[in-house]
Specification:
The complex is a heterodimer of chains A (about 400) and B (about 400).
Chain A: H1 3-21, H2 45-59, E1 72-73, H3 78-81, E2 94-97, E3 114-115, E4 118-119, E5 134-137, H4 145-149, H5 153-159, E6 175-177, E7 196-198, H6 209-221, H7 244-255, H8 268-279, E8 290-291, E9 304-305, E10 313-315, E11 333-335, H9 364-369, H10 376-384, H11 387-399
Antiparallel strand pairs in A: 1-4, 2-3, 2-5, 6-7, 8-9, 10-11
Chain B: H1 2-21, E1 27-28, E2 50-52, E3 57-72, E4 75-95, E5 98-107, E6 112-125, E7 128-136, H2 158-163, E8 169-181, E9 184-193, E10 229-238, E11 242-252, E12 257-258, E13 261-262, E14 268-279, E15 286-296, E16 309-326, E17 329-344, E18 360-373, E19 376-388, E20 396-408
Antiparallel strand pairs in B: 1-2, 2-3, 3-4, 3-20, 4-5, 5-6, 6-7, 7-8, 8-9, 9-10, 10-11, 11-14, 12-13, 14-15, 15-16, 16-17, 17-18, 18-19, 19-20
Classes of the chains: A alpha+beta (about 400), B mainly beta (about 400).
Chain lengths: ~400, ~400
């Protein structure tokens, strides 16, 4: 065989080998428990396709003025606020204003309830009107939201203790509000005086993921839909700027995002931290386990999950009272935020924790120390823990 | 578009029929090493053209195709075969000092047939030439010197194609000239042309993205800002040291006036670029590098998602390791190559936190190339790339293997 043929043969063989083996030298995927995004297991092909459509609309669709952005807005896409479906950053923190009690928002005619603090070129963003109180809301993580939607009203009410009958210092009430016109409650909903239990958002003021999604498109991006055609700038009804199908796809995407997976569960420090979490009664509000009702998505149907929330409003004391509220919540009441995914927040918040409702706490320890109201007893018990116990508790929380 | 396709088809048919009717020996295809430019600004004419007998028209072109396997953080779309582009050049010497050159590019993936360059050059003096038509703005070096067969990598430099727009051409006029003195060479270019629009800060990339303006074909008819985009470049070359070029492009970019009514502040962009290339003596190592800075007036009431400053560039190092008769080709060249790249899409700090804005990318791409002739290259490369999002979260890691070929014809 001539040298030329050998060279050609060697070249072709090397190339084919590389083409076959190339998969091996690609970057490997992060471990499943290191990621917040991704679907729940067991989706059908059809459900997987709907998930992907929603994924693209949520993470890849960028709104420009030509696509309906604004003219006043907070962010240019859903993914801008929820990097990797995790908690957000102060860059896209929302400001809401104008409501001080359950009688409603008195500043709707002046741009309430949400400040659109940015504007497309040629327009001016909104300002907070004189006399309006306000609060800032850091975007929450999206993971596992579909599980929350399927918790029954009965289960939520079972965790409520409005009069603190068990004398543990923790009450907990649901946020009862009127339904948005386009929302259809499930058959097992338990209304009270024509109002329904809302469960999403910092104040628990959004009923379900459709309500949350439609509000976010409208208030965060300035995008009208068939569900909510009112333009945030003119306050007039305009043509939909997004298709109903796309909104529905995004809702399905949010419903089928997987639950965060706990890490290092066998680490003795994490296990000790879990015990301490219960001993100092953090679990009084941050309920470790809830259960879902029936769902056409197998992975979501009639199953237990571990979000560390009770979906109820709690008095968090004057330190966290910004003088603003939503629905039937008091200004000092906040819905218990789920703690699952907490340890991964740093990977979506730019390498720095921005915790509590407005991101004021820059570490988990700082967040605990800022608890007040119904959480005062637990906070004080945390303060008295030894350094080792505190470390174990923080390790446990970071494992979630 | 239909008209364009018809015209192109006619040109091709005519070209083939001319070839069919004449003795192929009349086709002159001078073999030149087109990887060695006189100056980067000469790149549009320093290409292999075929002339037919004494016809004043010469034609040429190049094509690029490749196989690619790419993955990001464990997610890959598998094997991809790509036909990136085919470009045709048609040049005509109208008289001794009047020339015309056009460059038409077919990009099947983009469903695009675009005229990249179509300009008339009129020499008044070697130091003063007039150029008009669809000109290629001389910002940096890559924009003018982008032909696939000249490069050792399938991918074009990221900073020079996605931060700066590559093959960025506009309707415009300008002057250029060159001066030689033994080893020294000096060249300049200065053009006024149509330019950018608001899409550079309102686009689907969710960042300040100058190439977004390429989508606006209206720029060949109507300028968004109503004010010319000025582009200028000076370049100096010493035959033993190398070439350095300094370039600037700037002007108002947005539609601030509509039907005589002022609807927005007039906002401008400014781009500075430096480029350098040299061949190290003895080793014959070829180094080419380019860096650019962009400053865009973005309204403070808009979103910091769209940065007002960007910077980025690349450096290619090409080391010929074997130059001899190989596989029956005379003076074939086998080279090792490496490209280093960096782009910061958004220089600055968040107003809310004072922390650095992320949105940056860096990449290293070693490769090997084989040139059976200077005008034809087979190239293989591996890319390792890290990209941070706006918030500066842990970078997404991308790897890519590419094997491609590119040739002038």
């Amino acid at each position: 065989m001539s040298t030329r043929l050998l060279l050609i043969f060697g070249f072709v063989l090397s190339l084919v080998t590389l083409m076959v083996a190339c998969q091996k030298i690609m970057p490997s995927a992060p471990a499943e428990d290191e990621l917040l995004d991704g679907p729940v297991e067991g989706l059908t092909y059809e459900q997987s396709q709907r998930f992907l459509l929603g994924d693209v609309a949520f993470n890849d669709e960028i709104f420009t003025p030509e696509k309906g952005l604004g003219p006043v807005f907070v962010a240019t896409s859903c993914g801008s606020c929820h990097a990797g479906d995790g908690k957000g950053h102060p860059f896209t923190t929302l400001t809401r204003f104008g409501q001080v009690d359950e009688t409603g928002n008195k500043f709707l005619h002046q741009g309430g309830p949400q400040l659109q603090n940015r504007a497309i070129p040629g327009y001016k963003p909104e300002q907070i009107p004189a006399g309006a109180t306000f609060s800032k809301f850091t975007p929450p993580a999206n993971t596992g939201l579909g599980f929350f939607e399927l918790v029954s009203d009965a289960d939520i009410l079972a965790m409520a203790d409005p009069n603190d009958e068990d004398n543990d210092g923790i009450s907990g009430v649901p946020n009862y509000s009127h339904l948005a016109a386009y929302v259809v409650p499930p058959a097992n909903a338990i209304p009270k005086d024509g109002k329904y239990i809302h469960r999403f958002g910092k104040k628990g003021a959004a009923y379900n993921l459709l309500h949350q999604t439609v509000n976010a498109y409208n208030q965060d991006i300035g995008i009208t839909s068939s569900y909510d055609p009112i333009d945030v700038y003119t306050h007039l009804a305009i043509d939909p700027e997004i298709s109903t199908q796309t909104v529905n796809d995004v809702v399905f995407y949010l419903q089928t995002l997987k639950a965060p997976i706990q890490r290092n569960q066998n680490d003795p420090a994490v296990q000790r931290g879990s015990l301490i979490f219960n001993q100092i009664n953090c679990a009084g509000c941050h309920k470790p386990t809830l259960k879902t009702g029936p769902s056409p998505v197998v992975a979501l149907s009639n199953t237990e999950f571990h979000p560390y929330t009770d979906l109820l409003l709690h008095d968090m004391g004057p330190g966290l009272d910004d003088g603003y509220t939503e629905g039937s919540a008091k200004t000092f009441e906040w819905r218990t935020p789920p703690l699952w995914g907490l340890g991964l927040s740093i990977n979506s918040q730019g390498g720095q924790y921005h915790l509590l409702h407005d991101g004021r706490a820059k570490s988990i320890e700082e967040a605990i120390q800022m608890h007040g109201g119904e959480a005062t007893a637990s906070r004080d018990k945390f303060a008295k823990l030894s350094a080792n116990d505190k470390n174990d508790l923080i390790k446990f929380l970071k494992s979630l | 578009m239909k008209k364009l396709v018809t015209i192109l088809t006619l040109i091709l048919i005519t070209g083939f029929s001319v070839r069919a009717q004449i003795d192929p020996k009349l086709l002159k295809s001078p073999v030149r090493d087109t990887t060695k430019q006189i100056l980067n600004m000469d790149a549009v004419y320093e290409r292999p053209f075929i002339t037919v007998g004494k016809l004043p028209v010469s034609v040429g072109g190049y094509m690029e195709a490749n196989w690619q396997y790419q993955g990001t953080d464990g997610v890959s779309d598998g094997h991809q075969f790509q036909f990136r582009r085919m470009t045709l050049f048609v040049a005509s010497t109208i008289s001794k000092r009047i020339k015309f050159l056009s460059e038409i590019e077919f990009e099947p993936a983009e469903k695009e047939i675009a005229i990249e360059f179509a300009a008339l050059d009129l020499e008044l003096h070697p130091m003063l030439n007039l150029r008009g038509g669809m000109i290629m703005n001389p910002i940096g070096a890559f924009n003018q010197n982008h032909d696939g067969p000249k490069w050792e990598f399938t991918d074009r430099p990221i900073a020079m194609t996605q931060m700066l727009p590559a093959t960025w051409s506009n309707a415009g006029f300008g002057i250029y000239g060159k001066y030689y003195n033994t080893d020294w060479m000096f060249g300049y270019e200065l053009y006024a042309s149509s330019g950018f629009d608001n899409s550079i800060i309102a686009n689907g990339e969710n960042k300040t993205f100058l190439p977004a303006a390429k989508e606006n074909a209206e720029r060949f008819e109507e300028m968004a800002s109503g004010e010319p985009l000025l582009t200028g470049k000076v370049a100096v070359r010493h035959n033993k040291i190398g070439e350095i070029g300094l370039s600037y492009m700037g002007g108002a970019y947005n539609k601030w006036r509509n039907d005589g009514i002022v609807v927005d502040d007039k906002r401008r962009l400014d781009v500075f670029a430096i480029d350098f290339n040299t061949t190290l003596p003895r080793l014959n190592t070829f180094i080419t590098a380019e860096w650019a800075w962009i400053k865009v007036d973005v309204p403070t009431t808009y979103s910091q998602q769209f940065g007002n400053k960007q910077q980025g560039g690349f450096a290619d190092i090409v080391q010929p390791v074997l130059k001899r008769n190989m596989l029956g080709w005379q003076n074939a060249t086998l080279s090792l190559a490496c490209r280093l790249e960096y782009v910061d899409w958004n220089i600055g700090k968040f107003r809310e936190t004072g922390g650095n804005i992320g949105d940056e990318l860096w990449s290293i791409m070693p490769g090997v190339s084989f040139r059976p002739r200077p005008q034809t290259v087979l190239r293989f490369s591996y890319r390792a790339q890290w990209q941070k999002d706006l918030l500066g979260n842990p970078p997404a890691r991308t790897s890519a293997l590419q094997f491609g070929l590119s040739t002038y014809f």
